[in-house]
Amino acid sequence: MLRLPPYEGYIEAMSRPSVLPRLQDLAQEQWGLITRRQMEDEGIGPTSLDRLTSPGGVLDRVATGVYRLVGAPIPDHMELRAAWLQLAPSLPAWERTAREGVVSHRSAAAMYGLGHLPADQHEFTLPKRRQTRRPDVRFHVRPLTNAEWISLRGLPVTRPSRIASDLLRDHEDPDAVARLVADAIRRIYDYPGTIADSLAPHAARFGLRKGDGLALLRWFLDMTGDPEISRWIDEAQADLDRKAKATP
Questions:
Q1: What is the C-alpha R_g of the chain?
Q2: Which residue among 52, 79, 124, 227 is least enclosed by CB atoms within 10 Å?
Q3: Helix/strand number for the chain, H first, E second
């Protein structure tokens, strides 16, 4: 469990004995982060929060309404995690589903460490439209199936196959998408056949037969010159053949 450092007036700031353990539990399951709304739900009001966040206090502000427990390890992609917590500030991280937002596009690629596209914004895919005042947050409204995202180090993140499709839909540089695809297959973050399926809707745009995701996958991989291209294409073809036989 996370241990809070001594803090003058800390006991006074806590209105109930059960608050501290609950805050520790919440933060421990949220990478050391906690939202203002979650603290309010535990009975911590504005005055107490001011004390907790004052110089020498036990909370550091990392984003509007999101704080980090002093002494907790700084998580990777902390700003992205804080932006995601802002999407549903009352709801603990472990109770959320894709409805509350999934990390996607360049942000998702950065989480995996795929390709070389800079993630200058925090990008999320949601099932319905919403707005934000943050210029560094971007929302995408598109449906997501359960097979198109995973939990990656505690965050819901789209799979590389979906990332590639999303980036093409956003008209990203094909060379950048090709590098991402090759990286994903090489590190076994996704499968060639699954990626070929996700690329199929974009094939005609690149002068290929409509729906030919395998041809587009080959074209992308040829751009990278990876020595494993032939094996990956064979795997994708075998996977597509199995799916075709299984389809009534």
A1: 22
A2: 227
A3: 11, 8
The tokens describing 188, both together, are: 């076994």
From the number of C-beta atoms within 10 Å of its C-beta (0-12, 13-18, 19+), residue 105 rates as: buried
Q: Who's near 90: CB < 8 A, 6+ residues apart?
A: 35, 37, 38, 41
pLDDT in tens, 132-148: 999 999 999 999 999 99
Beta carbons within 8 Å of 149's beta carbon, 6+ residues apart: 98, 102, 156, 157, 158, 159, 162
What is the rounded distance in angstroms from the CA atom of residue 95 to the CA atom of residue 87? 13
Q: Phi then psi for 26, rounded to 5 degrees? A: -60, -50
Q: Minimal CA–CA distance to 21: which of 35, 50, 39, 1?
A: 1
Which tens digit of pLDDT belongs to each residue from 77-92? Answer: 999 999 999 999 999 9
> What pairs with residue 63 in β-bridges?
66
Whole-angstrom distance, CA of residue 248 vs CA of residue 239:
16
Residue 247 burial class via C-beta count within 10 angstroms: exposed 0-12, middle 13-18, buried 19 and up: exposed
The model carries a pTM of: 0.89
